[in-house]
Write a structure and sequence with these properties.
This protein is mainly α. 58% of the residues lie in helices and 4% in strands. Bound molecules: zinc ion.
């Protein structure tokens, strides 16, 4: 092979090995929880949430719509195939949270606040991205490692991380510290969530725009958004960083709304979800009834 043709072959190899599309790789990190641990703590937390929070029945048209949309997005989630499931909390406050292992809850108030299917898809894709990157158990692992003296850890050998953590009071249920994300986790969830939206056919800009819209409304909505921004703190450059990610992807025509979304929006417009105070009263009554 003479020099020019060898050069051309080499150049071709270089061109062909450059990926056509830049993608965000899901982040990983120190995590003491095995896959089984992740599923176990997620299941325990799910049972607690189901007992303590007023949920819409999974058979309701709104729940079915949200579960269908969530599953459509989750089909594009990279990494472990977690058993994703989506439920609606009958709560007025705007929030959404993801348990380890793939169970995701979205408040009815969030659905009422979404002006397009793409905005709601943005919240769900962001939550899916928290699951993929195991933000909850990574955060708990840091605390475990900092708290457990080595001698004690040795005494616990043979027990699963989930059992050790539970013995130390580390859990992921209602109001868990480990469901509150750091700004770093938020950035990671935005970027991976943007890719998931893109792959499912939604404009990823809607994710950042919905979060920003909520932030702009925070003052006017009283305490309705406190929990949301406590669980999902603003990383500071949401719009810019999502726009930057989208700029690396080939342009395509996005879906904004489906007929199912528009009909579901009519249904939720007349619904009256519970306020945080009503839920607190409901929980007291509910606890007595058990
Ligand atoms: Zn988040």
């Amino acid at each position: 092979m003479n020099m020019p043709s060898r050069f051309i072959s080499l150049a071709l190899i270089v061109v062909l090995t450059i990926p056509a599309v830049a993608r965000v790789q899901p982040t990983t990190g120190f995590d003491l929880y095995s896959r089984d641990d992740e599923l176990q703590v997620g299941k325990e937390a799910m049972l607690e949430v189901n007992r303590q929070m007023p949920l819409l029945p999974d058979s309701s048209p709104v729940s079915r719509y949200v579960n269908d949309l969530g599953k459509k997005l989750a089909a594009h989630a990279p990494g472990e195939p977690w058993p994703y499931a989506f439920h609606v909390v009958n709560q007025k406050d705007i929030n959404a949270f993801a348990l380890p292992g793939g169970t995701i809850y979205v408040n009815l108030g969030t659905i009422q606040a979404a002006d397009s299917e793409a905005e709601l898809a943005g919240v769900l894709a962001h939550e899916i991205a928290h699951v993929v990157q195991r933000h909850g158990t990574r955060s708990a692992s840091k605390q475990l490692a900092a708290q457990v003296p080595l001698a004690l850890l040795a005494g616990m050998l043979g027990k699963s991380t989930a059992a050790q953590a539970a013995a130390m009071g580390i859990s992921f249920g209602v109001g868990s510290y480990f469901l509150k994300n750091s700004r770093q986790s938020e950035s990671e969830a935005d970027l991976l969530g943007a890719d998931i939206m893109y792959d499912a056919g939604y404009d990823p800009h809607a994710l950042a725009e919905f979060f920003t819209k909520l932030q702009d409304e925070a003052g006017g909505r009283g305490s309705e958004l406190d929990q949301f921004f406590s669980d999902h703190p603003d990383p500071g450059n949401r719009v810019e960083s999502v726009s930057h990610e989208v700029a690396t992807l080939p342009s395509k025509v996005y879906a904004l709304n489906s007929p199912e979304f528009l009909s579901m929006k009519q249904t939720v417009a007349t619904m009256k979800p519970m306020t945080a105070e009503q839920i607190a009263a409901w929980q007291k009554k509910h606890a007595r009834a058990e």
